[in-house]
Write a structure and sequence with these properties.
mainly alpha; two-stranded antiparallel sheet; 4 helices; 4 strands
């Protein structure tokens, strides 16, 4: 009995027969996601993207908790504050501030652990209308 791969073009001509299967190779039915190998998930671009998403999430959680002591601020509001361009701010300055913020977020997990150990915290502030930004 020959089984032809149902997805067609991605594996055209792939025929699985009892003679081609061995005991060391398990047959995985071609369902959604079955063609993704673990090596793709561990590739540097995917791992780097996952790290940045996690670091941004950690920063937004920490920042929203710190700000919630003074005024309630959600993670969505913080994301909007960081990514929306204010009126009167040039696109170049806006992109530079986002790049500076993401550079800080890249180091945030380590910086925050060190700051927390000394009962401090690390935050990124930007003042686009004053053409400035910084780390506190």
């Amino acid at each position: 009995v020959a089984i032809r791969h149902p997805l067609g073009s991605s594996s055209a001509g792939m025929v699985i027969t009892p003679a081609t299967m061995t005991t060391s190779v398990a047959f995985v039915p071609p369902i959604l996601g079955a063609n993704i190998s673990p090596s793709i998930l561990a590739s540097p671009p995917v791992a780097g993207m996952a790290y940045m998403v996690g670091a941004n999430f950690a920063y937004l959680v920490r920042r929203s908790r710190v700000l919630s002591k003074r005024r309630p601020t959600t993670m969505k509001e913080l994301w909007k504050m960081r990514t929306m361009r204010e009126e009167g701010v040039s696109r170049l300055l806006h992109m530079c501030i986002i790049l500076a913020w993401q550079t800080f977020v890249l180091t945030f997990p380590l910086c925050e652990v060190l700051a927390y150990a000394f009962n401090h915290l690390s935050l990124f502030y930007s003042y686009p209308n004053a053409s400035g930004c910084g780390i506190i």
